[in-house]
Structures are given as C-alpha cells and as structure tokens.
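Example for tutorial group B:
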C-alpha cells in the first residue's frame, strides 16, 4: 500500500472586498463583523487525502451527488441495478463527472459544489432514458460524454437520431474542449427497445462510440484532433479500445455474435472469432477481453488478446454464467451464485473461492473491487477482502461503496448517492 498523498483542493470562495472604494471611517462596519469575515477567509480549505487502496470510508464528511447519479437506477429494494460500474459517473482525482440524458456536471468531491456544467445541443432521443446512461470515460486530459439526441424533421427530411460526443476538459473551468455529431441509422429512431450509447475509449487520436438497441449495433471512430468521423462499423458493439485496436461483438443474427477486432485508425477488420450464441464480452485486463456464452465448448469461457483475437487463457470451470469484475490491478473477482471467486487476470487461474458455509464463512455481497481489494456487505456489516487471497482485511470500512478510487467511495443511502472520503 502506498502512503498517503495529501492533495489540497482550493475552494473557490468569493470575498466581497472592494479595493479603494470602501466606506468612510464613520460608516465602517463594527469590528466584530470585520473579525468574523477575516476568520472566515483564513479558514483552512478542505482536502482529500489519497489512500491506494482505501481501507475505510468516512460517513461524517460525506458529500451528496446530483440526483442524475441515481435517477432511474434503483430497484424496488432501493438497490442500484447492475451495480456501480454502470452508474453514469466517472471519478477522476477529487472530482466526479455526472452524466444525464442531456448534460454533464462536474462536482467537487470535497464539498459538493458544481465546478462546471455542459449541456447537449438538442433534445434527448428518449424521455425516460435516465436509467440507461452509461459512465463517461477518461481520454487523456478530457472526459468523453456521448448523448443520444433527436434530429427534427425539416422540409422533406423526416426526424431522426444522432449522437453528440462532447469532450470536457479535466482542468478549470471544466468546459467543452470540443464536440461533434454523427447521424445514426434509422433503427435507432424507430427502435421499440432502449437504445444505449457508450463512449468506449480513445487511443492514438481516435475515440470510439458505440450504439446498441433491439439486437442492433453500430460503432464509430472519431478523430480527436479534427473531430471528423474516421470510420463506421455497422453491427459492431465495441467493448474495449486500446493497443491500436477496437474489440467487440459483431451482430450477425438475432442473439448470435462473433468476436471482432478492427483497426482503431481505419476501422478495417483485423481478426474475427467463431460464432457464439448469446455471447457476452467484457474488458478483463489491459489488452485483454473475456468472451463467454452458454452454448460453447469446454474452452468457451476465455480471455482473448485484443491485438490478435487469440486465447490467452481459459477461465476456471463453473464461471460461465458469472459476472466478473476487473480490479484494475491483477485480479478478476467473479460472483457465481452464492460464492465469490478470485481469478488471476493474466493466467485465468483460480486463486481462491469463498463458498457459503465453507470454513465457517459466508460470502459477502460484493459491491466494488479496486486495486487488490474487494468491498461488500456481510452478515456482520461492511467488509474488505484481499482480492488475491480472499482473506478478510483487519479493518472496519464503515460502508460498502459502489465505486472506489484513492480519494473516495460512492455509497448509496436512501436511493441517493454520496461520496465518502477514504482512509488508510
């Protein structure tokens, strides 16, 4: 564990001090008011300290995030559908970028103030799409936020749909560095299902955006310098971007897909896998994706090299239907039924398994994994586990966060999302 790294976050406080135009001496404010103002201006600024990975979360100094962070996300039990990885929130240092169907807010996690705000230039494609907004992604010094918008009818042209990609600067004043639009195919406007848009990532000067809905998909490569459309791949649901490649699932028939890798700059096909029914693909590690499905052979649950499409490793048996989350370090944490399993992200080897009733332990409900730690809820309250061994960490985390960074943990309380400062 690395030691604490203090980060001073200066609060932008407005002091009503007018130089050279103050009142006459007889009209001056009482000394008590002046002293109070001076004390206020000299109050120390709040700060967040980094712990990588954090061991506990401070509920006393929590900060409320905008309603957009959870709107349309909770189920009848008040839990977040799909977990924290699908929240419309990107955490970057001491700031949160919170997206909605028509805008994005930049929140200071030290005090909850709004540092910046940008809006989409158009109407949302679906009015009730709050629960389907995916998180923004970080691309260098910019945050990429895509919006699904309508294009109004004009003259002989009927109404349609477009995606607007907005790049928000990660530096003050947190405004749009650039934005561009791409016209979408007709099925996105007519689809009866929920159409989703995702900024997959950016590498080598190309940003990738993918749109899915009703078993259709399309992906786009956008030049981050000229903001022009570089390529279009109908049928491709992009999942991972990096090492000069974009990798995803190519829709060939209803519920039938093939893994596909395309060149990031040109969009040309580089490799194609075998057809898989009801396939699932997810980022598994740097340069690696996991591909699985219910009707494939014994070696069907595999980790693929994104550059070649070749299998790097085969996942342990029994995890095919399980969701696995990469801790952004070295481990995949999988949750098959009433169990938690740790898998080495490089070799696919099972590191440990915690099953209900074994060795007098009960598997926790996993809420987040990050940098070698597993966070969740157990029978005795919130817990932290070592992702490489499955052992309980000797700490009382005080909360079970949905997302974690070295500065904060996002915790759901009464259907609202709060940022909790971390401790080591």
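The residue assignment follows.
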């Amino acid at each position: 564990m690395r030691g604490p790294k203090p980060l001073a976050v200066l609060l932008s406080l407005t002091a009503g001090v007018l130089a050279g135009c103050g009142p006459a001496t007889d009209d001056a404010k009482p000394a008590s008011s002046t002293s109070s103002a001076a004390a206020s201006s000299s109050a120390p600024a709040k700060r967040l300290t980094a712990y990588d990975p954090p061991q506990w979360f401070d509920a006393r100094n929590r900060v409320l995030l905008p309603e957009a962070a959870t709107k349309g996300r909770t189920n009848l039990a008040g839990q977040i559908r799909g977990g924290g990885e699908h929240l419309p929130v990107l955490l970057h240092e001491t700031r949160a970028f919170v997206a909605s169907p028509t805008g994005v807010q930049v929140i200071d996690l030290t005090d909850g103030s709004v540092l910046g705000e940008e809006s989409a230039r158009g109407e949302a494609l679906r009015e009730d799409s709050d629960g389907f907004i995916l998180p923004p992604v970080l691309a260098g010094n910019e945050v990429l936020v895509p919006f699904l918008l309508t294009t109004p009818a004009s003259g002989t042209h009927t109404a349609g749909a477009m995606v607007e990609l907005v790049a928000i600067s990660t530096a003050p004043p947190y405004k749009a560095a650039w934005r561009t639009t791409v016209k979408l195919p007709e099925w996105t406007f007519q689809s009866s299902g929920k159409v989703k848009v995702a900024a997959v990532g950016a590498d080598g000067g190309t940003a990738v955006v993918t749109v899915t809905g009703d078993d259709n998909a399309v992906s786009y490569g956008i030049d981050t310098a000229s903001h022009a459309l570089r390529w279009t791949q109908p049928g491709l649901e992009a999942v991972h971007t990096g090492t000069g490649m974009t990798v995803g699932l190519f829709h060939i028939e209803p519920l039938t897909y093939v893994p596909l890798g395309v060149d990031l700059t040109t969009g040309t096909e580089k490799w194609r896998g075998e057809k898989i029914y009801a396939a699932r693909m997810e980022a598994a590690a740097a340069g690696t994706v996991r591909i699985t499905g219910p009707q494939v052979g014994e070696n069907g649950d595999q980790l693929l090299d994104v550059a070649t499409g070749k299998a790097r490793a085969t996942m342990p048996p029994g995890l095919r239907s399980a969701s696995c989350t990469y801790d952004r370090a070295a481990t995949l944490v999988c949750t098959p039924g009433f169990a938690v399993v740790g898998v080495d992200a490089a070799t696919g080897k099972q590191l440990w398994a915690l099953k209900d009733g074994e060795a007098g332990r009960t598997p926790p409900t996993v809420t987040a994994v990050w940098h070698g730690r597993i966070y969740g809820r157990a029978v005795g309250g919130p817990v932290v586990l070592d992702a490489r061994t499955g052992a309980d960490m000797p700490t009382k985390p005080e909360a079970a966060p949905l997302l974690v960074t070295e500065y904060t943990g996002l915790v759901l309380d009464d259907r609202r999302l709060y940022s909790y400062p971390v401790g080591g």
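The domain at 2-423 is CATH 2.130.10 (Methylamine Dehydrogenase; Chain H). Compare this with the pattern of hydrophobic and polar residues in the output above.
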